[in-house]
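Researcher: We're teaching a course module on how sequence relates to structure. For the next exercise, students receive a sequence and then see the predicted structure as tokens, so they can try to spot secondary structure elements on their own. Here is the exercise chain.
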Amino acid sequence: MIVGLIVNPVAGLGGAVALKGSDGLDVQARALELGAVPRARARAAAALRALHARRPEAVVRTVAGPMGEDSALAAGVRYELAHRPAASHTEAADTRAAVAALGTVDLLLFAGGDGTARDVLDAGPRPPVLGVPAGVKVYSGCFAVSPAAAGAAAAVFDGRTAEAEVVDLDEEAHRAGGLGARLYGTLRVPAGRARLSGRKTGSSAAAPGSAESIARAVVAAMRPGTAYALGPGATTLAVGRALGLELTPLGVDVVRDGAVLGRDVTERQLLTLAMSQVTHGVLSVIGGQGFVVGRGNQQFSPRVLDALAEIVVLATPQKLAALGGRPLLVDSGDPLADAALAGHVRVVTGHRESVLYRIQSASEELL
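Model: And here is the predicted structure for the students to work with:
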């Protein structure tokens, strides 16, 4: 078995530092200035380790340096180089060139986010693919639910494929609060949805007033002197409206006693706040995917999760019903942090309404 691997080494840089994406050299430079830590290499290596554990004879065909070779070395797998990027920094053209250079492989793994998926799509004729989630935005349906799930799915790939949608957000509009996503096309992925995350769906199908009902419940339960870190999402924006506050549409804001304590905070700022006072995290479920942590809210890092006094999960009844019994998911990047949240969580679904719902690590083998 020959598995191709392409890594976007800057994927995910902008998440923890509240830049809401990593597209563009200026954004990448700003992210590094703010202390962002590249994570795509490690997430690709985790996928390769899961593949190697099940198919040790598999050979990885990849790209020199941070676009794949570094991950193969870290995972200790057999690999061969098929391409060397022209420059030390990588852009969309490098991903497209790498897809062409890898040639015929059984399955192409790519580590990145929705922007990387678009680059793979734009490369033209290609083998079946599977995304290793490593970006800030991972809303397309061509990604596995976690790096380990990507490796496990690759190991059992039997050639059968299905179509998965590639969607992306305009990052400039995204940073300004735009919520819309555009469909760019489809990619062939391994058939069987068990380990795939599925495409994110919005909140437009929710019953009128359901988000406001949830918001009233959250505000009624807020305690004096306690800080609340409100994650991104339409439901948490409704909490802000119920408080009479205008929140950052796709950022993390911290409120206390009806006032904004921190606006559009970074992971480091959120950690400082959480360690200095009692802080609760308020997180909404991503429709269609079920993620609570790890998709668009990387400010809630493992160390922040550990510092929070409590996590409050919000979801409309429609979102939970659409999951069809599948669990809520956590993918913080730290297996121990994910395991600490596993079990059952109370989900606020309306005013004086809540349900207990199963939540687990996205890397659990049952997925």
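Model: If you want an answer key for the exercise: The chain has a mean pLDDT of 88. Residues 2-190 form one domain.
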